[in-house]
Amino acid sequence: MSQPANDIGSAGLEVENTDMSGCEIAANDIVKLTHDKLSTEEVSASVVCPSCGAVSLFIGITRNSFEGKKVVELEYEAYIPMAQSEMKKICWDVRLKWPSVKHIAIHHRLGVVPVSEASVIIAISSPHRSESLEAVKYCIDTLKATVPIWKKEIYETEDCSWKENKECRWAGSREK
């Protein structure tokens, strides 16, 4: 299977799980970094499973303002090998914390992301909603804290500013 031209990298990891009937079904972890526009439908469909009654999604989109400044677009950069590795660790941690989770997909866009378009989409399926909802929140919070992806805001005035996530573990380390 070939990757689209703008697909920087995606990695899938199959994990053997047993459903309630005792059937072994391969769980799937998908992490993807791409310059292409993200598709909510594609990400959501990638985690659908007949034994799951819940698919929970988080969609992070570019907003049009920040601290009174009009934002026209964001630009993302990543250290791709480490970003993929950290995203896989997040999937592993989710499986330890919520063993009933079936499929996990984390897609993050790189490059320019215009206002109202998705920068990140996370989808998780599980038999019941509480596990997938909790796991999605954990995923986005941990992604922002640990994955080396950097965001630049570009304003209407043509000024720009690199943003550091407040959740990021290394955010305050330079100030000390």
Question: How does this model look, in words?
Answer:
This protein is α+β, with helices and mostly antiparallel strands and 176 residues long. 24% of the residues lie in helices and 42% in strands. The chain has 3 helices and 10 strands; from the N terminus they run ββαβββαβββαββ. It has helices at residues 40-45, 80-97, 129-146; strands at 7-18, 24-34, 54-61, 65-66, 69-78, 103-109, 111-114, 118-126, 149-155, 160-163. A 5-stranded mixed β-sheet has the order 1-2-6-8-3. Strands 4, 5, 7, 9 and 10 form a 5-stranded antiparallel β-sheet that branches. The longest helix has 18 residues, at 80-97. The chain is elongated.
Main β sheet profile: 5 strands, mixed
Range of strand content: 35-45%
Shape: elongated
| Residue windows where pLDDT falls under 50 for at least 5 positions | 1-5, 14-24
Give the H and E element order: EEHEEEHEEEHEE
Alpha-beta content class: alpha+beta
The residue fraction in helices comes out at 10-25%
Question: Over the alpha carbons, how many angstroms does the gyration radius reach?
Answer: 17 Å
Query: What would the average pLDDT be, to the nearest integer?
Result: 86
Number of strands: 10
Task: Compute the number of helices.
Answer: 3
Widest β-sheet, arrangement of strands: 1-2-6-8-3
Terminal CA distance reads: 48 Å
Keywords: Cytoplasm, Molybdenum cofactor biosynthesis, Transferase
Family: Belongs to the MoaE family. MOCS2B subfamily.
Catalytic activity: 2 [molybdopterin-synthase sulfur-carrier protein]-C-terminal-Gly-aminoethanethioate + cyclic pyranopterin phosphate + H2O = molybdopterin + 2 [molybdopterin-synthase sulfur-carrier protein]-C-terminal Gly-Gly + 2 H(+)
EC number: 2.8.1.12
